[in-house]
Amino acid sequence: MDAYEIAVIPGDGIGPEVVDAALPLVADAAEEAGFSFETTRFDWGTERYLDRGEMMPDDGLDRLSAFDSIFLGAVGHPEVPDHVTLHGLLLPIRKGFDQYVCKRPNVLFEGIESPLRGYGSGDIDFVVYRENTEGEYASVGGREHRGFDHETAVQSALFTRRGTERIVRAAFEAAAAREGHLTSVTKSNAQAHSMVFWDDVVEEVATEFPSVEVERLLVDAAAMDLIRRPHEFDVLVASNLFGDILTDVGAQITGSMGLAPSGNVHPDESSPSMFEPVHGSAPDIVGEGVANPLATVLSWSMLFEELGETRAADALWTGVTDQLADDDAPRTPDIGGTAGTDDVVADLRSRL
Ligand code: GGG
């Protein structure tokens, strides 16, 4: 029997609520599928930062490197600027383990009402491949002359051939596997260096995938078209920032941030990947027990899939699909119900 070691970082706000609620359910799914996993919990996050001035310890990445996979809840706290928390925990893990593919599926499940009129179950089903280690999140730049009239801030975006080729190739592979098409999103009319380079790379890599049709969209048009014609998208590939923004649009048109899972993946398994719900720490509902746990459950499904445990992955994904399709099943307020986090998980456990 395979036994995996998983690092769990519940993080801030509703992170611990959804992570702790989901754990017994995902353990059930593993047992049912004939494998087990041990979790090691790391209480890294903003409470630690407020106490000790660091989100995680200096040897944090070394400690995580021993694990088969990592699960993260949420990062962010009303008392600390978001760039401090993000750069102290989430981004160092993504970059440190070279998790260059941020995979974010956007599915309109049966039983979920999209804010877009006329869209129903199955009409929206696309996945965004977001570049996850460079681009606009590269931390290249600086801020000078603070407080003076000539104060200046520079933030450069970094696009390397290696980094761009590998995310574009990963997205082409996904499109080929889905027998679908690829949409590459840039702003190459305005950003004439980095994004024209991106377009060139897409054109080059496209020659390796003659069966995949490629569409190129500017990010403003892509944001509009995700609302105007979401049914026509299949796989999107975008830079770090654009991918982040577009996946929030994706979460809204498929019903709720509470249903949006993600994986930060290093595909060759030489270092651990990290899975997390797309939503943040949601300070407005912390402690109320109503955070939607389904993005967390779906992210565990992605984690199991990445480990090759497809039976457990499918059981979790199907459980969520069946629950959402059932009018009588409990739902959290973000998707129109009145139930609590624990009620939703208890119902899911009964369906496994
Ligand atoms: N679930 C992880 C989380 O808390 N995300 C909040 C966030 O701000 N993420 C930014 C990003 O994904 O780049």
TrEMBL record:
PROSITE patterns: IDH_IMDH. Gene3D superfamilies: Isopropylmalate Dehydrogenase (3.40.718.10). The keyword Transmembrane does not apply. Residues 5-348 form the Isopropylmalate dehydrogenase-like domain. Its cofactor is Mg(2+); Mn(2+). GO terms for molecular function: metal ion binding; oxidoreductase activity. It comes from the Archaea. SMART domains: Iso_dh. Keywords: Manganese, Metal-binding, NAD, Oxidoreductase. It holds the Pfam family Iso_dh. Signal peptide: none annotated. This is Isocitrate/isopropylmalate dehydrogenase family protein. It comes from Halorubrum rubrum.
